[in-house]
Amino acid sequence: MRYLFRTQYRQDIALWRHNGDRFWYAVLAVLVLIAPSVLGEFYIGELGAVYIFAIAGVGLMLLVGYTGLISLGHAAFLGIGAYVNAVLLAQGVPFLITLPVAGLFTALCGAAIGRPTLRMSGLYLAIATLAFGSIVGTVFQKWTAVTGGFDGFAVPTPYIFGIAVEGATGIYYVSLVVLAFVLWVSANLLRSPIGRAMVAIRDSEVSAQSMGIHLARYKTLVFAVSAGMTGLAGALFAHYVRFLAPDAFDVLLSVQFVTIVFVGGLGSLRGAILGAMFVRLLPQFIAIVRDDLPFGIGRLPGLEPSLFGLVLVFVILFQPGGLNGMWLKAKQWFQAFPFKRQTSFRRQKSYAKSERLR
Amino acid sequence: MILFQAEDISVRFGGIRAVDSVSFDVRQGEVFSIIGPNGAGKTTIFNLISRIYSSTSGKLIFEGKEFTRTPSWHVAGLGIARTFQNIELFPNATLLQNLLIGRHCHSNVGFLSQLAFLPSVRNAELKHREKAEDVIAFLGLERHRNALIANLPYGVRKVVELGRALCIEPKLLLLDEPSSGLNVEETESMGFWIEDIKKDLGITVIMVEHDMALVNQVSDRVMALNYGKVIAMGTPQEVQTHPEVVKAYLGGEVESAA
User: What is the ipTM of this complex?
Assistant: First the structure.
């Protein structure tokens, strides 16, 4: 078992805690880089989709897991990012410009929505963001001049320095780079004053305020950052699906994002990635076992959403740390082997949003 | 020199006058205690000073400047820190993070530089960390440094909250019942810390407290409240023997009032 002996303050804010971290993340980086030459087209496509969902998941994690604000409208931000990117590309703007513009524009939308709605909290905020999501969904349907409405919108092939980003592999690498960027930015935020302000707002608004934290400003800022990251994911999502239809960005997708955050484990970036893997791979798993299920369960309509709901309920009840919590427990088990005791994993009071002092 | 003044402040909740034309001034470097029975309006005064509530009338003056309408998030920046009666720490953050949040009003790095964690942010963080470490050493919290607040015992949390307020490097410190929920020994060390805060750090303290032993130990002056009104002000001895104060606590008839 490793005991970290800290001798310098800078060790506390380092991205990598020790050489073990560096080693394993380097191994992971090599693995994801060579994956396309090893795995088949289908798996690379799916993995790329996991990355895209992970980008949105990280964005939502900052909002839900770290700042304690809920949003049921993030599919709308994904949609805004997707349409902005696709429409600009169709106008002939290069991809290296449309991608950041999609992110920035979505962030601005997030700030514009966040400013009025973030006076609310808890259920009211959930309802407000839900309403926002359905308004944006309607705009996608009705504003046919721009979005093409239900006829859909064919997303042009992006070019980076004259090279076409085509096929699963192209999207895979671009998504990987964007995911790495988003993770880096999030890790930076979390070790900066803004990250601490977010945690403060989550845990006690009254005392955050007394520490000099401007609640409205920081909530809006985080909402904008979260929306912006989701917008980036949306821009990539457009290329993943290649054909935008307005009904893709409905409330079910928002619920999937929330599932990413909760199943992954609140308050952890790793959780957002694990959650994204779960959310993308569960439908694939269902598709594989569907035919073998007894009593015709596999042919029931709505099997997938109900399974998502069931998993969400079970995670909240029995594993509030989510997949990240399971990961940490497994790690601890191996580190302490063979000295694991029942009480090692006894559940402490875990993060739950209370309504006190509101 | 007068550091803080409340001039005739009042606040009403519906028909209740929680604080009724209260005036007092606090001198630089003193410990000023506010006592009174439950519901007398002591904590309400703190909430008025930290601008969580707005006063219906009156003025608050700090270092000669009025801040009656300053937004609450600005108060820490003025140099006024506070603790809460029922501990308002950030339970799912470590002790160190809690102290660093206290440094928030001293951070002036831009959003984009935080996104990229530029060297300016790193250096500022290291400075904040050094300051937080001073506070940890001052309060003897070394062994809990990386513990989650949720896992710490109540007595320690109370000290952490004091530490978080000290991280603001305030000129005026508001302590809301620093001894509530503490045992005798912990109350005693709280008393010594308050004396140290006053003598070594030169911070002026306003304290709401029920433990009269602690009040006597540390206070320079005491103000007694009842039903939102000031009933006595002076040295601890003067206030405790004041007939109105005795009446407020014991409910007895007082001859002079009859």
Answer: 0.88
The answer to whether B133 contacts A9, with C-beta atoms less than 8 Å apart, is: yes
pLDDT in tens, chain B (258 residues): 899 999 999 999 888 889 999 999 999 999 999 999 888 889 999 999 999 999 989 999 999 999 999 999 999 999 999 999 888 999 989 999 999 999 999 988 999 999 999 999 999 999 999 999 999 999 999 999 999 998 898 899 999 999 999 999 999 999 999 998 899 999 999 999 999 999 999 999 999 999 999 999 999 999 999 989 999 999 999 998 899 888 888 876 655 544
Residue of A nearest to B106 (CA): A212
Of B104, B109, B129, the CB nearest to A212: B104
Describe the strand order of the beta sheet including B16-27 as a list of residue ranges: B16-27, B2-13, B57-62, B65-66
Please report, as a single letter, which amino acid is at residue A114. G
Whether A122 maps to a domain, the answer reads: yes
- B97 and A196 within 8 Å at the Cβ level: the answer is yes
Task: Classify the C-alpha dihedral A129-A133-A139-A142 as positive or negative.
Answer: negative
Specify if A22 maps to a domain.
no
Is residue A27 in some structural domain?
A: no
Superfamily of domain B2-91+168-257: P-loop containing nucleotide triphosphate hydrolases (3.40.50.300)
Task: Report the residue from A212, A349, A357 with minimal CB separation from B76.
Answer: A212
- Establish if B118 touches chain A: CB-CB under 8 angstroms: no
Chain B partners of A202 at a C-beta cutoff of 8 Å?
A: 90, 92
CB pairs under 8 A between A and B: 111
For A150, A162, A260, the CA distances from A195, given in Å and listed in that order, are 41, 38, 21
Domain ranges of chain B: 2-91+168-257
Q: Give the count of domains, chain A.
A: 1
Q: For residue A182, is it within any domain?
A: yes
